């Protein structure tokens, strides 16, 4: 059986993606301005240095959030009440705090408290005191984004794990597979098909939310744009390039994820 999208290249609605054509045209025009205009070229040469930092923060924080979120989801479905309640408490508290507030709290309240705790423990073993300024701001930013997104990803993982047919789990149990083997070979591979699209969407959101780390002075795209605009007063050109960089990254990721979803649907249709 062939998936519907494979038969209809225009998509399920039968409409051509005129929005995408318009968007690509806008991006190409902006890149032409960067190539043809010296002011734009100078701005781009400065801001492109922040792409690496943005990518580093987004990838590391998201990978960590996925690992923590999966652990929370498994704990939330545990037979032990204390694990279920602890996971739910964490998820509800973190989801109720704006990411910006959480970022500032981790950076300027939790991080110094952690340094004090580490120094207290280290004093028992004769370690040299650790200074708060030795705790890199980029590490604080990654920790904050990890905590923020782990709560949302935990709900995605939980929904995916619950979507697996219980009959298959019982069959695996009857075959003698232990809990880890059932999770590894039966539950997670099937849940992954369900949760992959929302996981991809959250990764795109993480790339955009990584711009919040600029409030800590981390030299990502947004921070470099703020510093550059404050120095040359070319706010229009500078923020045009900032928007262009983020738009190019997020649209590229979105199209790649959409293509992956189509291939997964085609695979399920052939199955």
Written overview of the protein:
The chain is an all-alpha fold. It has one domain: MetI-like fold. 79% of the residues lie in helices and 0% in strands. The chain is built from 11 helices and no strands. It has helices at 4-7, 18-36, 38-47, 49-76, 81-95, 99-123, 137-162, 166-174, 179-209, 221-232, 235-270. Helix 4 (49-76) packs antiparallel against helix 5 (81-95), helix 5 packs across helix 7 and helix 6 crosses helix 7 (137-162). The longest helix has 36 residues, at 235-270. Mean pLDDT is 86; it is low at 1-9.
CATH topology: MetI-like fold
CA radius of gyration: 23 Å
Distinct helical segment count? 11
Derived structural class: mainly alpha
Distance between the termini: 8 Å
> Given the C-alpha coordinates, what overall shape results?
flat
Low-confidence stretches: 1-9
Count the domains: 1
CATH class: Mainly Alpha
- Order of helices and strands, N to C? HHHHHHHHHHH
* Quaternary organisation of the protein chains: single chain
Strand percentage = under 5%
Helical content stands at over 70%
Query: What's the story with the biggest beta sheet?
Result: none
**How confident overall, as mean pLDDT?**
86
Number of strands: 0
CATH architecture: Orthogonal Bundle
Name of the CATH superfamily = MetI-like
